[in-house]
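User: I'm writing a tutorial on reading structure tokens. Could you give me a worked example: one chain, its sequence, then its tokens, then a sentence or two explaining what the tokens reveal?
Assistant: Sure. Here is the example chain.
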Amino acid sequence: MPLYEHVMIARQDLSNTQAEGLIEHFGTVLADNGGKLVEHEYWGVKTMAYKINKNRKGHYAFLRTDAPSAAIQEMERLMALHDDVMRVLTIKVDAHEDGPSVQMQKREERGDRGDRPDRGERRERR
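And here are its predicted structure tokens:
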């Protein structure tokens, strides 16, 4: 089955348990349609770059799924209808990465970004 990764933003006025309950709810939707929730991470309440539906913050969650496209479409349809879900991003991937996502890693564990060869030398601005 195809592999997908989803990032979901829920309303800021939910409690942590309610936000995690949304993850479980959409996991059961996948299971009912022949897919499975491989792994999920609750990233917590984060400030957004711009307001969405008059909300400045939101509960972020990351889901890794293994499901047929029909199950994904049904889950996205239900997320769009759900009042507590503000945004969803779904990406089809070739393979799931092992370990926690970059968002959950500490800065020291991420490693160096290294030089960017396309940038060349930078001069200081004065």
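What the tokens reveal: Strands lie at 3-11, 36-52, 55-66, 85-93. The mean pLDDT is 86.
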